[in-house]
Predict the structure.
Amino acid sequence: MAFLPTNKRDIMAARGGSGDDKGALERLAATAAAGQGRGPAPVQLWNPPYCGEIDMRIAADGVWFYGGSPIGRPALVKLFASILRKDPEHHVLVTPVERVGIRVDDAPFVAVEMATETAEDGGRLVFRTNVDDIVAVDAEHPLRFERAAAGGLKPYVLVRGDLWALVKRALYYDLVALGETARWQGEEWFGVRSGGLFFPMSLANEIDGL
C-alpha cells in the first residue's frame, strides 16, 4: 500500500518546510487523505466554495511546487493529483469543503511511458503518467497534437475530465515511428491509430518539416 502523508510532520517534510508552518497545503492534504480511496476523487460531483489561489504550481516538466519549492514526496503529489480538476477559468484542487486555484504551466501531467496492446479493434496505445495514471488512447481519451513554439509537434493525451498529459519528447518519436498516412476530413494526413480510431498529427505533405 502506498504511503499517504496525513500528519503535519510528513506533509511539512514533503514540502521542505518547518512543522510550525500551518497553511493551505496541510489542510488540503489532510482533507484529501481522509477521503482517499482507490483512484481519483469524484471531484466532478463536488461544488464547494472557491477560496482563492494558493502558491502551488505545476511546471511544464510535471514537477509540483509549493511556495517556490518542489514537493519532493511522490505520494503527496499523487494525493494532490487525485483532487485536481480543470474548471473553465483555471485548474483547481477540490475537496468536499473547499476549492482553491493553482497554476499550471502547460499540462498538469506528463506521459512518461508508452506501450502497445493487442485488441479486437486493431491495437491500442497505452500511456503511464508521472503520477501513475494508466490511459488507453480511445474516443474518451484522445491524442491531440499542437505545434510547439520552437518547432515540431507537442502530443497530449486526455487523462480524465479536461486534464491532459504532455507526452514526453522521447515518446513523440516513438509515435512518429508508429505513424501512417490516411485520408482524414478529405485530405491526406499523417497520424497514429489506437482503439480503432485515427488521430492526425499533421498534413502528410508537412510531416517532413516537423
Summary: The two ends are 43 Å apart (CA to CA). The chain is about 20% helix and 40% strand. The chain has a mean pLDDT of 84. The longest strand covers residues 50-58.
